[in-house]
Every structure is written in C-alpha cells, then in structure tokens.
Specification:
two-stranded antiparallel sheet
Length: about 170
C-alpha cells in the first residue's frame, strides 16, 4: 500500500511473540509455513521486482510485514508474470522476505496478454486497497475479540487504535 504522508511510522519489534499452530500446505526451506495457494516455492533470487513499480514501501512497513509473515506464515504468494518474469503483486512481501534473509518464497505465476494488461494489474493491486476504508466499530469489535493474539498481527499498534477510538468519540 502507498505510504501515508504526514505520519511518523514507528519501527515494529524485531519479532512478534507468536507462531501459528495451523497446518500449512507447505513449509519453506527457511521454516516459514505456507498457507496460500501457490504454483511453486522458488528461490528468492528468482523473484525479480518490476523496476517500474510505482508503489513504495517504508522500512517500518516492511519490518511489520516481515514480522507478520514470520508469525502467521505466508497467506499470499508473490505473483510473477510469465510474460515478463517480473513481480506483479507482492513487492512488499518480497522485500519482507529479503529483510529476514529467507531463501524461499511461494510464487504464483500469472499469464498476461500484453505489457499494458500486466501494468494495469500491478497498479490496481495497490490502488484498489487504498480506496477501501474501515468500519471502525467493526474493526474495534474484531480486535477486542482477538484475546491474547498480538495486536501487531493486524498491522495496527496501540497508538493507532487509540487514534481510531478518539476519532469515533468526536463523531
């Protein structure tokens, strides 16, 4: 997702104190469980980022994503174009894996008729997520029902939750 302007991001902890107990479809050579559909587990070196990817990821976002993947496994693969060989979806996940010095990632290979179709998918993947919003009341309910699950697995921290609560109180 695109970096939000004007807000200082905090660096997440080096590792979350949680490991999923769910049964994975596969496990990478690095011991990270894989739950998502994927065509293959590939060497991280085989995944080539698209040099024209307009989406930028902050260091804090990549650190957070790396921790989430490490704690709860791969829930989405890195999508690679069969046409160009470039990553189309999952640049952040690829950066997270590199941050952890992992050697393998789950890959999903997609067919594209032409360059324009591939670029449209690359752009839409991030843009469509930006256009969504949260129902803050439902969000807080879900987080409240998570029990002992680390809040950081949601991508939020306590300060972010407090901001949501404060905004809701002003409504």
């Amino acid at each position: 997702m695109a970096k939000k302007k004007g807000k200082q991001e905090k660096t997440p902890p080096a590792r979350l104190l949680y490991n999923t107990q769910a049964t994975p479809r596969a496990v990478t050579a690095d011991g990270v469980p894989v739950f998502c559909s994927h065509d293959a587990l590939i060497s991280i070196e085989e995944a080539v980022p698209n040099p024209r990817n307009p989406n930028q990821h902050s260091d804090a976002q990549i650190a957070m994503l790396a921790n989430i993947i490490q704690a709860s496994g791969w829930r989405q693969p890195v999508t690679i174009s069969r046409r160009s060989g470039f990553v189309v979806k999952g640049h952040g996940r690829l950066l997270a894996a590199r941050r952890k010095n992992w050697t393998q990632i789950p890959a999903d290979y997609q067919e594209y008729a032409n360059e324009a179709e591939e670029w449209a998918d690359l752009i839409a993947d991030n843009r469509l997520a930006e256009l969504s919003g949260f129902d803050n009341s439902l969000l807080l309910d879900l987080i409240g029902e998570m029990g002992e699950m680390p809040l950081e697995l949601t991508g939020f921290d306590m300060d972010g939750i407090q901001e949501i609560i404060a905004a809701m109180e002003k409504e």
